[in-house]
Design brief:
The complex is a heterodimer. Chain A has five helices and five strands, in the order E-H-E-H-E-H-E-H-E-H. Chain A is an alpha/beta fold. Chain A has a single domain, classed as Rossmann fold, CATH 3.40.50. Chain A has a five-stranded parallel β-sheet, with helices on both faces. In chain A, strand 1, helix 1 and strand 2 form a beta-alpha-beta unit. The longest helix of chain A is centred in the N-terminal third of the chain and has 13 residues. Chain A starts with a strand and ends with a helix. In chain B, 42% of the residues lie in helices and 24% in strands. A five-stranded antiparallel β-sheet of chain B has the order 2-1-5-4-3, with helices on both faces. In chain B, strands 7-6-10-9-8 form a five-stranded antiparallel β-sheet, with helices on both faces. Chain B folds into four domains: 139 residues, 2-Layer Sandwich (Beta-Lactamase), CATH 3.30.450.20; 104 residues, PAS domain (Beta-Lactamase); 73 residues, Signal transduction histidine kinase, dimerisation/phosphotransfer (DHp) domain (Helix Hairpins); 152 residues, Heat Shock Protein 90 (2-Layer Sandwich). By secondary structure, chain B is of the alpha+beta class. The chains are: A alpha/beta, B alpha+beta. Chain B: It holds the Pfam family PAS_4. Chain B: It is found in: Cell membrane; Membrane raft. Chain B: It is a multi-pass membrane protein.
Chain lengths: 120, 517
């Protein structure tokens, strides 16, 4: 498998740590942002191949981040996996333009499979 | 008989006997009673009366000839009409009175009496002529009419008082209700505003009544959505109920309001006036949102560290060295189980909270029912390889429901079946179409339950006999399942016998709930 750039955006440090560890384990390059206000900037700078995005974040929600991305001509095709603990997360994520939704608490196997599927 | 040829009547002594006879006949043919009294004799005796007089009074001529007519008044001598008559007689004037008279048999009749003097050439009164008419019926009618009039006037007074009472009462109601009420004329000028309106929107009666609605309080009521309601919607859609309007008022801030509007349709002085009821739901909506927020925050906050724990455990499992001991492996397995249990518990707690606060939201969508069942069964087969789950039947149905909630119900029934049949390893799932519903039955051959347990098993926090705590649950699983099915307008029930096992079944309308909520 090619080494790809995975960007993780979640306000919880623990979740970022877990996702970083698993993504590195399967061989990808991983970056993380825990302030949603900064994610647009980081995406522009880093040009990730895939974004794992939390919905529930203070100040700027994952939903709004995603909408902004999708209206940006450069990033509207960026593969995005949305993760969330809320039951209507799937609805919100799909409506905002997510490619995949995974509920928290997630199974690491699922994460790996979804990332794989979207990158190929 | 010269005068026989002459058509003029002549009462002189030369008049022909036939003329007198004709006149007598005429008098006798009259309907009115006629009497003549001789004023030259003492006490004015009657010297002539006609047939009609006899008929009217019941007296015959021989009874009354020579009498004064006062006998007609019988004992009823105190009528003031007598004074009028006495005056006329004394003055030699004519008069007309209505006087009470009595027939020979004692019956009362009303006599319209016309009396006129007859004077000689010297101008002295010699006779009086009295013309009588029985006007009893007319007098009675007049009396009845007067009585009716009195009754009517009393009724009107009573009705007017009752109306005033009603108006006062109505006014009190309007001033006491906890909603703003406005009455507008067809041109949207304010005819009246109740106390609650004035208080909520901090305006006075003087600056409200008589003004155009949109001009009130410096145009603060010039709201486009309100205009839509009054001009576009109300004319054709009467009444309008639960119309939501949100507006930022200059001095009182943002308000969310529910409006009811009614244009008076019944005929009368109030026709085409518009009644506007305004309920301020700003705070209520905020509280509802806050409740929702709390539940959502609770869910998120609880699940986040759990996600991290699960992640670390899985990472550890993946990082397990080749020669790890059995103890290592099995311990990790157990941690995973308890992580899942905690997750399920959080889910159940939130479900129960939502149900209790009336916030159970169902996301209705169409899905393949058989596929959902198959997935739930497969999931359970993977979790519990020790049991044999047999799936029978098919519906081929495309159902409108909240798929994840229904799957939750099926999974819960399956895990219960396994829990209460630890020794018998067979579980049967049957699915079928029943009229406009789909039906699912989960049958186990395990312990069964008593009649008492059967009755209470869907209650919150009810636990029957517990054997294995392999699966999570606080006794609210079936309660939640029952609520989910009920919210879909289906039914959930159990048939069971001790020692023989249980069958949990539910029905689900294929077309979804007919109404919301």
């Amino acid at each position: 498998m090619d080494k790809k750039k995975i960007l993780i955006c979640d306000d919880d440090e623990g979740i970022i740590d877990v996702l970083e560890m698993i993504m590195e384990e399967v061989g990808h390059e991983v970056m993380s942002v825990n302030d949603s206000l900064k994610v647009q900037e980081v995406i522009d700078k880093v040009q990730p191949d895939l974004l794992i995005l939390d919905l529930w974040m203070p100040r700027l929600s994952g939903q709004d981040v995603l909408r902004q991305l999708r209206s940006h001509p450069q990033h509207d095709k960026l593969p995005v996996i949305v993760i969330s603990a809320s039951r209507d997360g799937e609805q919100i994520a799909t409506a905002a333009g997510a490619d995949q939704f995974i509920a928290k608490p997630f199974d690491l196997g699922n994460i790996v499979e979804s990332v794989d599927a979207l990158l190929n | 008989m010269d005068t026989a040829k002459n058509r003029d009547f002549d009462l002189s002594a030369n008049a022909g006997a036939s003329n007198i006879q004709l006149m007598t006949m005429a008098l006798d043919a009259s309907n009115s009673g006629v009497i003549i009294t001789d004023h030259t004799q003492p006490d004015n005796p009657i010297i002539y009366c006609n047939k009609a007089f006899e008929n009217i009074t019941g007296y015959s001529r021989k009874d009354i000839i020579g009498h004064n007519c006062r006998f007609l008044q019988a004992q009823d001598r105190n009528q003031k009409e007598r004074e009028i008559l006495a005056h006329c007689i004394a003055e030699g004037e004519e008069c007309r009175v209505e006087i009470r008279n009595y027939k020979k048999n004692g019956d009362l009749f009303w006599n319209e009496l016309y009396m006129a003097p007859v004077k000689n050439e010297a101008g002295e009164v010699t006779h009086f002529i009295g013309i009588q008419n029985d006007v009893t019926w007319r007098k009675n009618a007049e009396h009845d009419l007067r009585q009716q009039k009195t009754v009517m006037e009393k009724k009107i007074r009573e009705r007017t008082m009752a109306l005033k009472d009603s108006e006062a009462f109505l006014s009190s109601i309007i001033e006491t209700v906890r909603e703003g009420l406005l009455v507008l004329d067809p041109d949207f000028n304010v005819l009246s505003a109740n106390y609650h309106f004035l208080r909520t929107f901090k305006v006075s009666l003087e600056e409200t009544v008589g003004r155009q609605l949109y001009d009130l309080g410096n145009h603060q009521w010039d709201i486009p959505k309100l205009r839509d309601l009054l001009i576009k919607i109300l004319p054709t859609n009467n009444p309008v109920v639960d119309f939501e309007v949100e507006h930022d008022f200059p001095h009182i801030g943002r308000k969310l309001m529910l409006l009811n509007a009614y244009r008076v349709e019944f005929e009368g002085q109030f026709k085409d006036q518009i009644l506007l009821a305004i309920e301020d739901i700003t705070e209520r909506r905020e509280v509802e949102n806050r409740k929702d927020d709390f539940l959502s925050i609770a869910s998120h906050e609880l699940r986040t560290p759990l996600t991290t724990i699960k992640g670390y455990v899985q990472l550890l499992e993946r990082a397990m060295p080749e020669n790890a001991s059995q103890k290592f492996l099995s311990t990790f397995g157990k941690v995973s189980v308890y992580v899942e249990r905690l997750n399920a518990l959080i889910g159940e707690l939130l479900d129960v909270s939502r149900i209790q606060s009336g916030n159970m939201e169902l996301h209705m969508a169409r899905f393949d029912f058989d596929a959902m069942i198959a997935e739930a069964v497969d999931g359970m087969r993977a979790t519990v390889p020790t049991h044999n789950i047999l799936l029978k039947g098919q519906t081929g149905a495309s159902v409108v429901a909240d798929e994840s909630h229904i799957a939750q119900v099926v999974t819960n029934l399956l895990s219960n079946a396994i829990k209460y049949a630890p020794d018998s390893k067979q579980i049967e799932v049957n699915i079928a179409n029943v009229s406009e519903y789909v039906k699912v039955s989960v049958k186990d051959f395990g312990l069964g339950m008593s009649q008492e347990d059967r009755k209470k098993v869907f209650e919150r926090f009810y636990r029957g006999v517990e054997i294995q705590k392999k699966f999570p649950g606080m006794g609210i699983g079936l309660y939640i399942c029952d609520q989910i099915i009920k919210n879909h307008n289906g039914t959930l029930w159990v048939e069971s016998e001790i020692g023989k096992g249980s069958v949990f079944s539910f029905t689900l309308p294929k077309a979804g709930k007919e109404q919301h909520g």
